[in-house]
## 1
Amino acid sequence: MTDLSPDQNPEASFGRVALQYAMEALRVIVLAVVIVLPVRYFLIQPFNVVGASMLPNFENSDYLIIDELSYRFHEPVRGEVVVFHPPGNRGQDYIKRVIGLPGESVTVANGAIHIVNAEHPEGFLLDETAYLGNTVTPGDAHVTLAAEQYFLMGDNRAVSLDSRSFGAVPRANLIGRVWLRGLPVEKIGTIPLPMYVAP
């Protein structure tokens, strides 16, 4: 009886196909790791909103995508929503809005926010009606921001734990800006930068 050649042997052929399939699957996995991991850890990352501190604009369980790349090329802008580590607690992630910029003095009093900077040495009241409507800002705070420091506040001013309590946030603590809302489905889209009325 003559032995079958490898090309005629069904078991050998199956083994070869299985090996080729395994090698192709391994290539796909390696390629995915090479592409996805840098994107996940250096460019964007997911974030789930927990709590009510950003109502009415962001709700509990909203699924957001954080852009970690932009702040390598430009400074944060007033009105951007950011994810960051609060001072003294790098194990926690917060989501708030940029209110005060480096070099500015920010005063919260009488339900409003007053900002003094180089362009407005007499100061101006920050008009937030574009995203807060007629919401007032409770509390009292006064902070003069050094270089690389930001004053951050939640949109739900009545309940938000923010720079009114823990003070200025160093730039090094900023993880990135909120770029995209992925869930809920009816709210999928990029996060617009609010337009402030010129003081």
## 2
Amino acid sequence: MNIKYSKQALKFLKKQDKSTQIRIISAINALPAGDIIKLQGREGYRLRIGDYRVIFDKHGEVLIIEKIDNRGQIYKGA
């Protein structure tokens, strides 16, 4: 499966410490395993990694990571 990251997702990952980066990236690479819920009111899915959330969508064989953020911030301005 091919994984593409948005500009915002890469920016958020770069700000995190190394252990958090590894934790988030390994959870993304393990998809479709994990705590995944289909979003309501918009397209896409949510992956929960502790206090972090990853919003992603699947288009064929391409997995698009749209947004990564903290639990309280990710849904604001959605």
## 3
Amino acid sequence: MSIRRFRVEDLAVLHDANQASVPGVSTETMEDLSKWIALSTCFVATDEADNPLGFLTLIAPGTRDYPSDNLRWFETYAAESGKSVIYVDRIALLPETRGMGLGQALYQAAFNHFSGLDEIGCEINILPPNPGSHRFHQRLGFHQIGEQTFLEGEKSVAYYVRTLP
């Protein structure tokens, strides 16, 4: 397995990984996913033949073309805390590759790439529940700094950050 940057020919497989990861990530059309990847830094985990297995996208606060309440939350957090933050928009893996360490490898690439910043931030669903993602991020050194409810009883998230080296 290796980690590299996104290539256009990866899009169909990454869309499959995204859709297989719903509701942990939002459902997207292929066109919209392509737009979001174009606005982001996108790392792709690949097999020995360079076939995509999953991906991680990160978006800088201030990216106004990305319509995300979660990104806006991190923009406010960065302004209030005075910290430089990169926002993890999504991580998605093909179902058959889960549990192989790809998520940790993708995050390590992000930690290294953005090491000049103070923190990396993400949101994780509380509703619908995503306990595996909470445990995964906590193992990587993330800690919760906030919550937001979007639709009472249906959609809420926890916000996490991790200090970068």
